[in-house]
Specification:
This protein is of the alpha+beta class. The protein contains nine helices and seven strands. A hairpin with a 2-residue loop joins strand 2 and strand 3.
């Protein structure tokens, strides 16, 4: 039996070592089939492991090529100094064998990178087919019942729009809207009917809003409507359209078609220097005022500035604005006439 002897002039420790195999995610025979879905965390872990393996093997290949380059330089220098044809022939064989080793390593690396690329595609398919595509740690910004942005998302939008209004000096109006009598509907027909009423508001009543207006479910039967580039007069026009739309909307309960309840709303414009909490607070107080007056109406609450102070006298300003509001005065006159 012929036994292969080590090549002369090449130290064993400096010869390129075979590159370690890259682990695959699935058997090659099942590569074309779509595997069962994986969780987001598992998919992320698999991707990180795959990336680490590829980087490790590429690093090993670079180190081996660098070592072999140094070895080639040594042999080249020796070749230049060779005196006899026998020495030249020996060095030539060493160089040829070394180059052959490098080519084998390159082919092996190319094959492993191709398999890693295939594994990456497979991992993408597995991760994309999972229903858990949303990171559980990410904040939820959509209301599950209505499909509208929720309170968290709306407050983010409010901060953005306040910054825009402050920067460009454009008007901005906030409306807090509450559907009247939903608790009574829930007690009479059940909460499912109450949910259907809220959905009917989304699909029918709120379509009276303009494309650039922002509406969100703030909680319960309460909605927030943000009207960029809109002053109070424009907001009242929008609300009148919504009131008319609500009067034309019905909700199907079993085999019965019931009219949806009316709504109450509090309206307040943005005033330079307002924080989001101040704007929401004013709109909430105006909404409570509208509800206390019997509902099915909206109240506008303005802000007055104290000329003797850079700060706004919020409490007295809100009270005076509410008292001067024509909507409040009209509602109070109606309430007085009804009492007689």
């Amino acid at each position: 039996m012929n036994q292969k002897t080590p090549r002369a002039g090449v130290p064993p420790s400096t010869r390129p070592e075979p590159i370690k195999d890259i682990p695959t995610l699935a058997a090659r025979k099942n590569e074309n089939s779509i595997p069962p879905p994986v969780s987001v965390d598992q998919g992320r872990d698999d991707a990180l492991k795959l990336q680490e393996t590829i980087l490790r093997n590429l690093s090993d290949a670079l180190i081996q090529n660098r070592e072999f380059g140094a070895l080639l330089q040594i042999q080249l220098d020796a070749l230049k100094q060779a005196d006899s044809s026998q020495e030249v022939e020996t060095l030539r064989r060493i160089l040829l064998d070394g180059i052959d080793e490098v080519l084998k390593g390159q082919r092996s690396l190319h094959s492993k990178i191709e398999r890693a690329t295939s594994d990456t595609r497979l991992l993408k398919v597995r991760t994309a087919s999972t229903p858990e595509k949303i990171d559980a740690r990410a904040p939820v910004l959509v209301d599950a019942l209505t499909g509208l942005p929720n309170r968290r998302a709306f407050l983010r939008r409010l901060i953005d729009e306040i910054g825009r209004a402050e920067r460009y000096g454009t008007p901005l109006t906030l409306v807090m809207l509450d559907v009247d009598g939903v608790k009574t509907v829930n007690a009479t027909y059940g909460q499912v009917t109450g949910d259907e009423i809220l959905r009917a508001y989304v699909t029918h009543v709120f379509t009276a809003l303009r494309r650039h207006d922002h509406v969100a479910r703030f909680g319960g039967e309460k909605f927030a409507v943000l009207l960029p580039n809109t002053n109070v007069d424009g907001a009242t026009t929008v609300l009148h359209n919504a009131i008319r739309r609500a009067g034309q909307t019905h909700c199907l309960v079993g085999v019965k078609s019931l009219p949806v309840p009316s709504f109450s709303a509090g309206v307040t414009p943005y005033s330079r220097g307002d924080m989001s909490s101040m704007l929401v607070g004013r709109a909430d107080r105006a909404l409570l005022r509208a509800k206390s007056l019997g509902g099915n109406q909206f109240v506008v609450e303005l802000v007055t500035a104290d000329p003797t102070s850079p700060l706004k006298d919020i409490n007295s300003g809100l009270a005076n604005a509410a008292a001067r509001s024509p909507f409040v005065r009209a509602a109070e006159r109606h309430r007085a006439e009804t009492a007689r």
